[in-house]
Input
Amino acid sequence: MVAPRPLVTEIGRPYWEALAEGRVSLPHCGACDRLFFHPRAFCPHCGASGPGWRDVPGTGTLYTFTLTQVPVAPDFADQPPLLLAVVELAPDVRLATTLVDVAPEAVRIGMAVAPVFDRETFAGLTLLRFRPG
Ligand SMILES: [Zn+2]
Output
C-alpha cells in the first residue's frame, strides 16, 4: 500500500505552489490582518471572504507530537514509526505535519523547528515537514 497523496484543491493551491518553490505561504485575511490555517474561502476570525496569502519564514515551535507505534491507517503500514506533530507557525496558527532528522527521545514540546521541503515522497508535490531548528 502507498500513503494517500494530499488532494490539492483550488482554495489550497497557493499553499502547494509556494512549497514547490521552497516557500511557506499561509492564508491571510486583509480585513482583520490575521493569518490562519488550513486554507478556506472565509476568514475563521472575522468571516471575511476571499482571504489572500502571505509568505512566512516557516520557522515555528513544536506545539505537540506523538510517535506512532502502530500504523495510523493501513496505507501507512509500510512506513517506519512516524513523529506526528502539530507545529505553531504564528500565534494560534498551527498545522499538522511530521518531524524528520530528529531522534524521538530528543523531541521537546516548545522546541524551535525549521521547515523541510519534502520533494521525494510524491512526484510533483512538495510536503512540508519540520526538523529541529
Ligand atoms: Zn479576518
